[in-house]
Design a protein that fits this description.
This protein is an alpha/beta fold and about 375 residues long. It has 15 helices and 14 strands. The chain has helices at about 5-15, 40-55, 90-100, 110-115, 145-155, 170-180, 210-215, 225-230, 260-265, 270-290, 290-300, 305-310, 325-340, 350-360, 360-370, and strands spanning about 30-35, 60-65, 70-75, 75-85, 105-110, 120-130, 135, 160-165, 185, 195-200, 220-225, 235-240, 255-260, 315.
Length: about 375
C-alpha cells in the first residue's frame, strides 16, 4: 500500500480521536493545511496582519495559539475557529485533503491536479502563487550556466545526479521538460546507467540542501526558499530560474494553489470564502511591503529576513484567475500529459474540460466581490 496513504490514514484516525478545540455548538471548526515555506506566505501575512488590510470586507484572524489556532471574524461576529496544520509538500497535502485530515490546503498545482486525476474528492479553488523555482548545482560542479550544464551532461561518463522533492513537484516537471527539449535522457531508475541525468527523489523540500551538502546529488530543481538558504550557507550556486529554462514556455508558471475537499466546499462555503478574502488581502500586502512579508516569512518558517528578501522576489503572488493564469494552465496540463503524469480522469483533456472536473472557482469569485465592493 502507498506509504503516503498509510500516513494520511493514520493522521485522519488521530484527528478523529483528538478533541475538537472548539466546544460543541460554539462555532464551526475548519482545518487549513500548508507546507511551511514562503510560497504560502499569503496565509502567514493574513494571520499576522489581517487588521492592517481588512478593508471594507471586515474579515479578521485573531490568534488563540499563534501559528496554530485562530478565530475567524467578520467584524465582531465569530465565523469559525481556524486550525492551521503544517503538512508535507508534493502529494502529501492532497492526500491529507482526500482523507479529511484537513478541509482546505495550500500546495502545488501539479500534485492537486494529479490527485484529481486519480479520483480524489477535492478541487482547486483558487490560484495562489507562481514561479519561485530554481535549478542549482554544487559550488564545485564544473558548470555555471544552463548551456554549460547541458554540454557537461552530454559528455559525462556517469549520469549527473539531480534531486527533486517529490514525483509531481512543479520544479521537477518543468526541469524534465527542459531535459527533453535539449535531447538529454533521464531516469529515476538507479540501475539505468545509460542516461545523461539521474533524477533522485530526496523526499521533501527540507532534504534538498542536506542531500546536496552530503554529496548525494550534484544539484537539484527545487523551490525557494531552499535555494536562497543554500546560497546563504554557500553550499550551492543558482544556475537559472526554472521559468527561464528552454523551451521557455513556463514563464510565470502556476506553482501553488488553494484546494479544498468537496465536503468542505459544500458545507463550509461562508468560512472558505472568508479565508479566500483574507488570502487575497494578504497577497496584496506582500506585494506592497517586502519588509512585512519578509518578517512574517522568517518568523513562520524559521529562516532569516535576509534569506526571505532574496527568496520572495523570485515568486509571484496573485490570486487572480486571470486570462494569463488560464493560458499557463494550458501549458501546464500539456506538460503533465507529455510526461505521463495523468492516467485517469484528466488524461488528454483540454484546459476547459480539466477546469470543469478539477476546479471550482465559485467561492473565489464571491471572495473577490467582498474585496472589490
Amino acid at each position: 500500500m502507498n506509504k503516503q496513504l498509510i500516513c494520511a490514514g493514520a493522521l485522519a484516525a488521530t484527528a478523529l480521536l483528538m478533541p475538537d478545540p472548539v466546544a460543541a455548538g460554539a462555532s464551526p471548526h475548519i482545518r487549513v493545511g500548508h507546507v511551511g515555506h514562503d510560497h504560502h506566505l499569503a496565509l502567514f501575512v493574513a494571520a499576522d496582519h489581517s487588521a492592517r488590510s481588512a478593508g471594507k470586507a471586515g474579515f479578521l484572524m485573531r490568534p488563540v495559539k499563534k501559528h496554530k489556532l485562530y478565530e475567524l471574524l467578520k467584524g465582531k461576529r465569530k465565523l469559525a475557529t481556524v486550525e492551521l496544520i503544517k503538512v508535507g509538500g508534493g502529494s502529501k497535502m492532497p492526500t491529507a485533503l482526500a482523507q479529511g485530515v484537513i478541509d482546505v490546503g495550500l500546495g502545488g498545482t501539479a500534485p492537486v491536479l494529479a490527485a484529481v486525476d486519480k479520483g480524489a474528492p477535492l478541487r482547486l479553488i483558487a490560484p495562489l502563487h507562481n514561479k519561485g523555482d530554481m535549478f542549482v548545482l554544487a559550488p564545485t560542479f564544473p558548470a555555471d550556466t544552463w548551456q554549460e550544464f547541458v554540454e557537461k551532461a552530454r559528455k559525462a561518463q556517469e549520469p549527473i545526479r539531480i534531486g527533486y522533492k517529490s514525483p509531481v513537484a512543479v520544479a521537477k516537471v518543468i526541469f524534465e521538460e527542459a531535459l527533453k527539449h535539449e535531447g538529454l535522457t533521464f531516469s529515476g531508475n538507479v540501475s539505468d546507467r545509460n542516461v545523461n541525468v539521474r533524477m533522485i527523489n530526496v523526499k521533501g523540500g527540507g532534504k534538498l540542501n542536506a542531500s546536496l551538502a552530503a554529496g548525494l546529488v550534484d544539484g537539484y530543481a527545487g523551490n525557494n526558499p531552499f535555494p536562497a538558504i543554500g546560497e546563504e550557507k554557500k553550499i550551492l550556486k543558482i544556475v537559472i530560474d526554472i521559468e527561464d529554462l528552454p523551451p521557455r514556455k513556463f514563464k510565470n508558471h502556476p506553482c501553488c494553489c488553494v484546494a479544498a475537499n468537496n465536503k468542505a466546499t459544500e458545507t463550509k462555503k461562508e468560512i472558505i470564502t472568508a479565508l479566500l478574502v483574507l488570502l487575497i488581502q494578504g497577497t496584496e500586502l506582500i506585494n506592497r511591503d517586502i519588509d512585512i512579508a519578509a518578517t512574517s516569512a522568517a518568523e513562520w518558517i524559521g529562516t532569516t529576513e535576509k534569506v526571505e528578501k532574496r527568496s520572495i522576489p523570485t515568486s509571484g503572488y496573485s490570486m487572480a484567475a486571470s486570462k494569463e493564469w488560464h493560458e499557463q494552465m494550458k501549458v501546464w496540463l500539456a506538460a503533465m500529459n507529455e510526461l505521463g503524469i495523468f492516467s485517469g480522469k484528466l488524461k488528454n483533456l483540454d484546459e476547459k474540460r480539466v477546469a470543469a472536473i478539477a476546479c471550482d472557482l465559485a467561492l473565489l469569485r464571491e471572495a473577490w466581490k467582498h474585496v472589490e465592493d
